[in-house]
C-alpha cells in the first residue's frame, strides 16, 4: 500500500492506494497515524478512494487508529469509502462509529 500526505489548513489528508491487509497495509497505516499524532497532527482524514481491498486486519486497524487519535483528543474521519468496504464495516457492526464522507470539501468543513 502507498500513503500520500497532504494538508488542507490544519487537517492532514492521507490518500491511500492499494490494499489494507495483514502484513501489507495495516502496519503502514498504523505507523503513519502514530507519526502524525506524535508531531501534533491530530485532525486526520483518510481518503480511501484508491483502496482496492481491505481484510479483517484492515478493519481492526481502522478501529485502532480511531481509538489512538481519540485518546490524543484528535479527530479521525473517512473519505470516499467504496460500497464494498462500507458493507464490510456495516457487517462488522462498526460503520456507525466512523464519520465518513463522499465529498472532500464537506469532510474538511466538518472538522470546524
UniProtKB/TrEMBL annotation:
Which SUPFAM superfamilies did the record assign? Answer: SpoIIaa-like
> What Gene3D superfamilies does this protein map onto?
STAS domain
Q: Which InterPro entries match?
A: Anti-sigma_ant, STAS_dom, STAS_dom_sf
Q: Which residues form the STAS domain?
A: 1-111
Family annotation (Pfam families): STAS
Q: Which GO terms describe its molecular function?
A: anti-sigma factor antagonist activity
Family per record: Belongs to the anti-sigma-factor antagonist family.
Q: What is this protein called?
A: Anti-sigma factor antagonist
Amino acid at each position: 500500500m502507498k500513503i500520500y500526505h497532504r494538508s488542507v489548513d490544519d487537517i492532514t489528508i492521507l490518500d491511500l492506494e492499494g490494499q489494507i491487509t495483514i502484513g501489507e497495509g495495516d502496519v503502514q497505516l498504523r505507523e503513519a497515524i502514530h507519526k502524525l499524532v506524535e508531531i501534533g497532527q491530530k485532525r486526520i482524514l483518510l481518503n480511501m478512494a484508491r483502496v482496492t481491498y481491505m481484510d479483517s486486519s484492515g478493519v481492526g486497524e481502522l478501529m485502532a487508529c480511531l481509538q489512538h487519535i481519540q485518546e490524543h483528543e484528535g479527530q479521525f474521519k473517512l473519505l470516499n469509502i467504496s460500497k464494498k468496504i462500507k458493507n464490510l464495516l456495516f457487517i462488522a457492526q462498526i460503520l456507525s462509529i466512523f464519520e465518513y464522507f463522499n465529498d472532500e470539501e464537506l469532510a474538511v468543513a466538518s472538522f470546524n
